[in-house]
Amino acid sequence: MKQEVFCNGGNNYAFKHPPKEYEDACICDTRDKKSEAPVTKKEEACKIVDGILNGKSATDDIDGCKPKENYKPWNCDEIGSLIKKEEKGACMPPRRQKLCVSGLTREDRIKAIEDIRTEFIKSAAIETHFAWERYKRENREANEQLQNETIPYDFLRSMKYTFGDYRDIFFGTDISSCLFIKGTSNEIKSKLGDQATTEKGGKHPNGKTRQEWWKTNGPDIWEGMLCALTHGVTNTEKKTKIKTDYSYDKLNQSKNGNPSLENFAKKPQFLRWMIEWGEEFCREREKLEQNIGKHCGEHSGDA
Question: 93, 171, 176, 295: which has the fewest Cβ within 10 Å?
């Protein structure tokens, strides 16, 4: 455009600042900005848990998982095919044989990255719900302990073992021979990826590796387990205190030489199950010795 107006004023002034043809380009701070996509807020773990447990009784099936009835004995490689052949010497706990995984292994469940978090929270919560109902049946004082804001030691240990088993499914380190679980692990791997970038240099969805995902969402899975455990606690203050005292952050601190929750869950599954077997053996032996002492005392007059 030829500039012929040299008097100040009007839109054609030759020395106008900025020049008319560049006016729109220079007012960057006032130009229309593209609307940013809204950030999807994650649903709270307890809300997810409430959605699947509300209205359910201790005997109702939930999302394909059943109440814990009769546990089978420990399954070792020589008496069954629940464990991969290469894992010689491993024994699968009765608890693990009935682990709730139906929500994780169905083909239609994990369609998007967000579904991974949801299905793990659901499965771990249902597992905890049924395991707690069984534990209460076998331990009369259990519910009273929980109402007094204490998770029974043995049940807390079983929760930690269960948390570790779900972690193995997520990372593909589960040593069971279940092809459905293997398929779930592979599906997770394909959606999250092992590396931060693809072979072509692009970023994986969310730019997160599986390790980063677990660091962010693993605590939510544990919280979901606590929500399921305290679902029947009607006193809000007590429920909050239990979830606070046994939170992921609290248990993820090493104390008195005991590993943190995450470090315990990281142990190889083979080793964790071996530790679990040893603990159960010691408990059963102690019960047996107590029964022998009781019966001997009844017949001989001394224990």
Answer: 295
